[in-house]
Amino acid sequence: MDTNLSDLFAARSQMGLSLAFHIVFAVAGMAMPLLMVIAEWSWLKHKDQEALYLAKKWSKGTAILFAVGAVSGTALSFELGLLWPRFMELAGPIIGVPFSLEGAAFFLEAIALGIYLYGWEKVSPWIHWLSGVIVLISGTLSGLFIVAANGWMNTPTGFEWVNGEAINVDPWAAAMNPSALQQGVHMVIAAFTALGFAVAGIHAQRLLKNPGIAFHQRALKIALAVGAVAALIQPISGDLLAKHVARTQPVKLAAMEGQWETEKAAPLRIGGIPFEDEEETKYSIEIPYLLSILAFADPQAEVKGLKAFPKEDRPPVAVTHFAFQIMVGLGTLLMLIGAIGLWGIWRRHSILDQPLFLKALVVCSPMGLLALEAGWVVTEVGRQPWIIHGIMRTKDAVTPLPGLAIPFIGFMILYFILGIVSVTLLKRHVFDLDQELGLDTSASSFKQDQAQKEA
Fold first, then answer.
1. By C-alpha distance, which of 284, 276, 285 is closest to 318?
2. DSSP H/E element including 232
3. Which residues contact 220 (CB under 8 A, 6 or more apart)?
4. Which of 110, 157, 271, 346 is 20 to 30 A from 321, comparing alpha carbons?
């Protein structure tokens, strides 16, 4: 591996690590406010003290995740300039609008979260709830603006490319690129799915340890409802996004599906191992016609295969294919568990208290985040070798400075420390919560209320 390829590997590894770490906290900033807003709304409407307590506890968890996300997001902004100066030189004037709007949304989110955390006794209850809604909206918009910038990298618009230069730049057209809405909706739904199941799994674990605690039962129902509804509607968004990819990035679709040959009535492959040297995907289960139907809504539609593209323009097929299979497989499992959970909530069935179902939720708890990470691997690796699709190759965008392994190690240490801090704080938060609930179980309004309900 020569120096240039070595630097490229280090830069891509560092960026991949940073994105994989930050995305967890970005998702929390989008989805956690929804949970606390629902809980507080329940208190405002029904004067349910358990819901009030839940809103306060979830808001503290949101604050911890927000703080760590702010640090990791700041590190990412430095990395863009450090690792990809040529990309920023070209892309900055074109796609600066979403980044500017994201900054404004972030500051609005921070202000609203401060009001929410410290305004319980200082503003009226409905104004306080409204500040939580603003946290939810601004956090979601922040994510949408960043995804819009990434969408531009997949379908660059808003400029004319003449003799290796961008002219007639229209930043708003770039911000509203064809992939912005498709990717943004898919990401938001994925965020609600991931956090809903993650939080539901935490409370399911506490119920396994301490059955019958009303606080955890209420928390589980809210989180599970959010995650389940999102998981059930995600296939609609996924189908629309896949059709968009088929039109705009056919080589990415071919890599996702392990499709080597250009053919009509193309089959959908479940599983399988792509062999890039042999240009063949083996050991998959093939469903005739289904890929053509899903990609173009026509069972006889022609789907381009990887062989239709030069080898230097193909993404890493195995990584893209496996990541796509993981995303779809985990998403399907979450749909099934979510459907059972929604049925239990609707029917008020005791299945939500059954140890087997609670254990299933604990097992599923990280799956939404894993599916989301896999989806971003599909998006980013599937676009290679381009950093801006069809315009700039990734190897041409990396910084020419040698020794990129050093900042890579430095950022690894930073994320390790941030990870330890966030896990420690969250574990302490859950421990303190259990202590408070433990004190309440002997002379607690929660236990008394539960006893009254059972009576």
1. 276
2. helix 214-248
3. 200, 203, 204, 207, 352, 361
4. 157
